[in-house]
C-alpha cells in the first residue's frame, strides 16, 4: 500500500506468483485515505483474486505484507478505530477460503529491503496512489477520526460565533478573542498539569 500524505490519495498494489506465472494487481483506493487502508485493500485484493480459483488449482496461499499493523489486526485481533467493514470483509474471505479447503498464511516481510516481490508491489501501489488523486468525492473513505475532527471543528466554529456576538464577557474577550486559545488556557492538558505539579513540589 502507498499513501501520498496520511490522509491523502492512496492505492494498493500486489504481485501474485502462481507456479511460473506472475500477476500484477493495482487499485486506486481513495483520494483521502490512509496507509493502513491501502495495506488492507492490498490484502483484500489478493484474496478476491484467489477466490476465482478452485482448490484443485490452488490450495495454499502464502501472503506477505510489510504492514505489521494490518497483520496484527487480522491475525492477532488488534483493535482498530477505523475500517471495520473492510477488516470484517477480509476476515470473512479468509474464513470462507479456509472452509473450502484453502490454507491461508499471512506473513510479515520488511519493507524497502530490496525484496523483489515487495518492491514491485510497492511501485504498483505508488502508481495507484497517484491515480487516486482523480477519484470522485464520493470515493473518499471517511474514518472515525475524520468524523470526530469534523464534529470538533463544527462545535468550535459555533462557539466562536457565539463568543464574538455575546453581550457578556467583553473585557475578557479583549484578551482571549479566540475560543481555541480560551480552551487551552482554561483547560490545561493533563501533561501540563503534571509538569506544574512537579514544579510546585520542587518549590516546597
From TrEMBL:
MF terms per GO, please? nucleic acid binding; RNA-DNA hybrid ribonuclease activity
Q: Which Pfam families match?
A: RNase_H (PF00075)
Residues annotated as domain RNase H type-1: 1-130
Q: Give the domain of life.
A: Eukaryota
Q: Which PROSITE patterns match?
A: RNASE_H_1
Would you kindly state one Gene Ontology biological process term found in this protein's UniProt entry? DNA replication, removal of RNA primer
Known InterPro entries for this protein? Answer: RNase_H, RNaseH-like_sf, RNaseH_domain, RNaseH_sf
Q: Which SUPFAM superfamilies match?
A: Ribonuclease H-like
PANTHER family listed in its UniProt record: RIBONUCLEASE H1 (PTHR10642)
Which family is annotated?
Answer: Belongs to the RNase H family.
Q: What is this protein called?
A: RNase H type-1 domain-containing protein
Organism of this sequence: Mytilus galloprovincialis
Amino acid at each position: 500500500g502507498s499513501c501520498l500524505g496520511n490522509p491523502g490519495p492512496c492505492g494498493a498494489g500486489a504481485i501474485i506468483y502462481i507456479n511460473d506465472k506472475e500477476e500484477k494487481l493495482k487499485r486506486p483506493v481513495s483520494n483521502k485515505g490512509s496507509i493502513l487502508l491501502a495495506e488492507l485493500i492490498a490484502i483484500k485484493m489478493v484474496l478476491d483474486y484467489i477466490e476465482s480459483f478452485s482448490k484443485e488449482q490452488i490450495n495454499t496461499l502464502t501472503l506477505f505484507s510489510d504492514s505489521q499493523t494490518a497483520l496484527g489486526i487480522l491475525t492477532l485481533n488488534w483493535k482498530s478505530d477505523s475500517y471495520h467493514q473492510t477488516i470484517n470483509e477480509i476476515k470473512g474471505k479468509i474464513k470462507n477460503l479456509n472452509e473450502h479447503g484453502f490454507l491461508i498464511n499471512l506473513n510479515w516481510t520488511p519493507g524497502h529491503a530490496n525484496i523483489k516481490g515487495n518492491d514491485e508491489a510497492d511501485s504498483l501501489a505508488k502508481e495507484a496512489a497517484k491515480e487516486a488523486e482523480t477519484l470522485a468525492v464520493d470515493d473518499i473513505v471517511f474514518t472515525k477520526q475524520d468524523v470526530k475532527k469534523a464534529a470538533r471543528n463544527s462545535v468550535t466554529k459555533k462557539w466562536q460565533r457565539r463568543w464574538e456576538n455575546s453581550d457578556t464577557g467583553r473585557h475578557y474577550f479583549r484578551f482571549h478573542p479566540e475560543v481555541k486559545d480560551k480552551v487551552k488556557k482554561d483547560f490545561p492538558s493533563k501533561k501540563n498539569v503534571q509538569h506544574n505539579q512537579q514544579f510546585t513540589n520542587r518549590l516546597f
